[in-house]
Amino acid sequence: MFKSIRHGVYGYRFSEPDMDSLLNLYCAGYYRVTNRDYCWHGRQRQDGPLYLFQYTLSGYGIVEIGGTPYTVSPNHAFMVEIPGDHHYYLPPQSDHWEFIFILVRPSHLTDIWENIIQRVGPVPKIPLDSSPIHSIYNIYREASMDRIDDIFRASALVYHFIMELYRFSRLPSSSQEEWPQSLRDAVQFMNDRYQHPIGLEQIADYAGLSKYHFNRLFTRTTGQTPIQHLTQIRLEKAVDLIKNTALSFEEIAKQVGYTSGSYFTKVFKHHIGCSPSDYRHGNAMLPVNRMTLR
């Protein structure tokens, strides 16, 4: 997707008053470095405070964060705060470093930015054909075509990029095709057996893993625990039965794997926000054709 655009750097300084609630784009760039003098020191820069996200397309560079060196090879990014204890450069062993980057002001982003780094680390591996990279590509393309002409457009683009990056950090393997076979088997087992009172131990046994290893692997891959996923399946089925049948709530509870109607009601109210009875009669929330739980 980058073959159709030229290298460049585009900066923004919006001065509209009373716009503190918006996200502030500072700079977007697509660059190829071959000069050995390319080196940025986080504590020497005067343009902060800023957050930098820089993604390698070809070649590689080095970033040292808190004294720890990282190789930033293709399909990897680094995330740092400016000013900060880091520096990044083109090492002698690399003949070039081609990358796309974005600089944004930290206002309203601190918690999400820190949470992303906590989840994926300061040098995450991100596939080229992923939503965050499509999003930052779109920012650069819009900048290069002079279509970011006000703070509202800039803020919307930044927000979309940050949300896609945040989503990636929470669901790094959102496509089940990328999951280990053991997890795909476990999900199929839950889809086939949700009507029965199965638990973590039975699901892990079917996946061929210890329940502790299975729980960690499933959570790290999907962003939710196996029991959360099973509950999601059961409640989505329950919502369909409540809406489209006249079955009693005790019978629905049994059909979706709960042995107790009262416990089913408690779980339903916790996740949906109202009791099954109120949901059926439309007393507590707007009726919907399908309920998606994630």
Describe the structure concisely for a colleague:
The protein is α+β, with helices and mostly antiparallel strands and 294 residues long. Helix content is 41%, strand content 18%.
Layout of helices and strands:
Elements (H helix, E strand, L loop, with lengths): L7 E4 L13 E9 L5 E3 L8 E10 L1 E5 L2 E5 L4 E6 L3 E4 L7 E8 L5 H11 L10 H14 L6 H20 L10 H13 L6 H8 L3 H12 L3 H19 L4 H7 L5 H12 L3 H6 L13
Antiparallel strand pairs: 1-2, 2-9, 3-8, 4-7, 4-9, 5-6, 5-8
Helix pairs in contact: 1-3, 2-3, 4-5, 8-9
Describe the protein in words.
This protein has 294 residues and is α+β, with helices and mostly antiparallel strands. It folds into two domains: 2-170, Regulatory protein AraC (Jelly Rolls, Sandwich); 181-281, Homeodomain-like (Arc Repressor Mutant, subunit A), CATH 1.10.10. Helix content is 41%, strand content 18%. It has helices spanning 110-120, 131-144, 151-170, 181-193, 200-207, 211-222, 226-244, 249-255, 261-272, 276-281, and strands at 8-11, 25-33, 39-41, 50-59, 61-65, 68-72, 77-82, 86-89, 97-104. The protein has a five-stranded antiparallel β-sheet with strand order 1-2-9-4-7. A four-stranded antiparallel β-sheet has the order 3-8-5-6, with no helix packed on it. The longest helix is centred in the middle third of the chain and has 20 residues, at 151-170. One of its GO terms (molecular function) is sequence-specific DNA binding.
Keywords:
alpha+beta, 2 domains, 4-stranded antiparallel β-sheet, Jelly Rolls, 294 residues
